[in-house]
Amino acid sequence: MGQLRIPGPTPCPTEVLQAMARPMINHRGPEFAQILYDVTDKLKQLFQTKNDLFLLTCSGTGGLEAAIVNTLSPGDKVLSVTVGFFGERFAEIAEQFGAEVIPLRFEWGRAVDIDSVRRALQAEPKIKAVLVTQNETSTGVTNDLAAISAVVKEFDKLLLVDAISSLGSINLPVDDWHCDVAVTASQKGWMVPPGLAMVSVSPEAWQAYEKAKMPRFTWDFTRAKSYLERGQTPWTPAVSIVFALSVSLDMMLKEGLANIVARHARVGKVARDGVKSLGLSLFAEEKYASNTVTAVTAREGLDIKKLVKIIREEHQIVLAGGQQSLEGKIFRIGHLGWVTKDDIAAVISALKVALPKAGTA
Ligand SMILES: Cc1ncc(COP(=O)(O)O)c(C=O)c1O
Fold this sequence. Notes:
Elements: E1 3-5, H1 14-19, H2 30-47, E2 52-56, H3 60-69, E3 77-82, H4 85-96, E4 100-105, H5 114-123, E5 127-133, E6 135-136, E7 141-142, H6 145-154, E8 158-162, E9 181-185, E10 197-201, H7 203-211, H8 221-228, H9 239-255, H10 257-277, E11 281-282, E12 293-297, H11 304-315, E13 317-321, E14 330-334, H12 341-354
Parallel strand pairs: 1-13, 3-4, 3-5, 5-8, 8-9
Antiparallel strand pairs: 2-10, 6-7, 9-10, 11-12, 12-14, 13-14
Helix pairs in contact: 2-9, 3-4, 5-6, 10-12
Pyridoxal-5'-phosphate binds at residues 8, 59-61, 86, 133, 135, 137, 162, 164-165, 185.
């Protein structure tokens, strides 16, 4: 079996996978209730929040939908601040549910410019919420969420954050940075297979909920909250993934959040330095280059698809290609969750051998 170096799903420690082999239990019984309370409490520590926090049985996209349908009404104006493919998806969900989306797009590979956000908020006082991606997985850019949040809160708007590929790996103090809804998903830095989204909900988001009229059922926060009070979820949860998460959270808390964030920073640097040492360039503006995924630009004559294939077949390392307009133009190295500097050094060594074979000629 090879090394999975895509930005999710990520590799899972053996103990985490073994937890999923446990027999099923009653998801409405006391044993599950205890696990759910425990997992929720531990997640709150890693989100650095005292807000409500819910597990939803879906992938991250379901969590983004939950953020929107629980806080907004059709016709509400939302500022969609995007730097890549996943930001566009967040906006698309809002649009599908009837929000009036005001796009503020930045060139892919660049980070959000804070003054532009301020100008956009000044220009349209009726904006109700701002949608933003902390870590844009498609381009390998981490936005300065603290600065974005400061501006959004200066204008007293709701801040809905896609933190799917950052929470638990890159620092995100949800309460200090006033995130009204922050969304992540199990298959990213949490070292758990896909199947759960985790969302935090601030008191201001609850106030917005009271007035929000978008249609919702499966992701309704009130149902999630009232069931959680009984140690349950409204619908049958992905029980095995919750077992796995329970183990991974213990591992994460043992390592400590500050150490996890520092490890990702070290690993990210190994990836960036390694890529540059091979004469390749980073797709992201380096100041904002992500510590969970490194996007690498093709140089003249390099066939990215061929490179990814050689790395997979000859080195048993799975890398990710580019998405949408970036297909064939970049490749991405995922380094989040269960990852060390050595794992990424091995990727760089494999690239060194594979690169000369991956020309277009
Ligand atoms: C930043 C970001 N947003 C959204 C998503 C979508 O999440 P999912 O595929 O779990 O629905 C991803 C997944 O890669 C992501 O990285």
